[in-house]
Amino acid sequence: EAGVVQSPRYKIIEKKQPVAFWCNPISGHNTLYWYLQNLGQGPELLIRYENEEAVDDSQLPKDRFSAERLKGVDSTLKIQPAELGDSAVYLCASSRTGGSDTQYFGPGTRLTVL
Amino acid sequence: AQSVTQLDSQVPVFEEAPVELRCNYSSSVSVYLFWYVQYPNQGLQLLLKYLSGSTLVKSINGFEAEFNKSQTSFHLRKPSVHISDTAEYFCAVRGGGKLIFGQGTELSVKP
């Protein structure tokens, strides 16, 4: 079974530029999560999808961040415009449901904003 | 609100020595507890979890953790560590449909 796939693995951009991250969850997993991991910190949830519906986006900075999950499978997280403080690792995870099911994480995208 | 505190940011140990990584949680509801491991430049991998039943849970590579409700702890232990155990370890509690992580403990195993 293939794991959670994320691309790109690394991205370097200048501030004020847009950037997008892509995630393909494990087949059959209905719940998809985007987490932000700052250096030396644990991951923090940005947004959670149940199928194509965003059911928890309370921690997503909506002035510059947006996300979508078309057809309830792949998901894209976008930042526009990026700021220096956005430099971090963006992790995608998926689980069968949003209950006690195990969350499986992708390798993450390391973003550096110059 | 639920929260997780990992009491040690770094734990250096020698190979074959025992280790304990400490985790305390705060929760007013039934808890689901997890330990994840993150190797350099990789995503998080589930090490073990407590959902219900036996308070002692074990992983396939020799780690174990014990859920202690009275002390609100879920410490991770291994009786003899290997160089390959060097990684960042995260304790997490599930709440509100998401995982709430601690700050992480960097385990460094030296020869």
Description:
The complex is a heterodimer of chains A (114) and B (111). Chain A has 114 residues and is an all-beta fold. Helix content of chain A is 0%, strand content 48%. Chain A contains no helices and 11 strands. In chain A, strands 2, 4, 5, 6, 9, 10 and 11 form a 7-stranded mixed sheet that branches. In chain A, strands 1-3-8-7 form a 4-stranded antiparallel sheet, with no helix packed on it. In chain A, strand 4 and strand 5 form a beta hairpin. Chain B is an all-beta fold. In chain B, a hairpin with a 4-residue loop joins strand 8 and strand 9. Chain B is built from no helices and 12 strands. The mean pLDDT of chain B is 92. In chain B, 0% of the residues lie in helices and 56% in strands. In chain B, strands 2, 5, 6, 10, 11 and 12 form a 6-stranded mixed sheet that branches.
Structural class designation of chain B: mainly beta
Treating each run of at least 4 consecutive H or I residues as one helix, how many helices of chain B? 0
- SS elements, strand count of chain A: 11
Radius of gyration of chain B: 13 Å
**Largest sheet entry of chain A:** 7 strands, mixed
Mean pLDDT of chain A: 93
Strand content of chain A: over 45%
Q: Tell me which protein chains meet in the greatest interface and how many residues each side has.
A: A-B, 23 and 23 residues
Query: In what range is the share of β-strand residues of chain B?
Result: over 45%
Task: Quickly count the helices of chain A.
Answer: 0
Q: What is the H/E order of chain B?
A: EEEEEEEEEEEE
Which class of secondary structure composition applies to the elements of chain A? Answer: mainly beta
* Low-pLDDT segments of chain B: none
Alpha carbon gap, first and last residue of chain A: 37 Å
Query: Quick one: overall form of chain B?
Result: globular
